[in-house]
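To: structure desk
From: M.T.
Subject: fold request, one chain
Message: Could you run this one when you get a chance? Sequence is below, nothing fancy, just the single chain.
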Amino acid sequence: MATWRNLAIGALRITGVTNIAAVLRRNTRDPHLPLTLFGLT
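Reply: Done. Structure tokens follow.
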């Protein structure tokens, strides 16, 4: 699980997210948001 979390944090940093904690909380409420952050939907 730690590997997946680190992968997600690294991907968020690459996309330029500055407040990672806020984005992770938002992603837990909306399961489709991570896909839209990376342009997959």
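Reply (cont.): The two ends are 24 Å apart (CA to CA). Let me know if you need anything else for the meeting.
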